[in-house]
Give the backbone structure.
Amino acid sequence: MEHFCLYGGTFNPIHNGHLHLIREAARLLEFDRLLLIPTNIPPHKAAADLASNRDRLEMARLAVAGMENVWVSDIEQRAKGKSFTVLTLERLRYLFPDTRFTLLMGTDMLCTFDKWYRWKDILQMADLAAFARNDGEQALLERKAAELGKARVIRVEPLPLSSTMVREKLRNGEDVSALLPPAVLSYIQEKGLYVK
Ligand code: ATP
């Protein structure tokens, strides 16, 4: 049976924290494919300052170009509507019937997981692998994972940065070259994204 890891998010924009996590997941979890899935309309957060679907998808593609077994999927953007993980999983199970799925998520997402639409159904269809985004989150992460029962904690060295931080720095004209792959930064600059 094949194993797919699913890594969803707004990726507004994708940054080195995301890429670090993908590399760590490749080291710690055996997967045949990792699907990076930029959302259409994010159901869990306010969508201020959200770049277009196409731009977020394109930046993700540029960022993972050359990474083995990592694919960017437009499955949520093509489905339109709100990007509920349970619906994405149902579609993926239909498309890839002999595949098991693991959802990758940071502490922030794991902490709200039991508020997600049909979260118990998600747990029927997928495993969870959760990881710390910031130092000092490990205890909270372990507790939340234990509460849910089915979440596996993967130990990665946190790379504490966020898309919010990247957007703020871009707005202020600060240097973000250490936070993003060069190809993504060039794309942002060419398109004039996140400047106001
Ligand atoms: P924003 O600041 O706009 O809220 P974000 O940086 O949190 O964005 P998302 O696209 O919302 O990024 O995150 C997608 C997934 O990536 C989530 O599971 C999130 O926990 C994870 N993630 C985000 N930043 C990091 C990071 N620095 N290290 C590891 N995982 C991260």
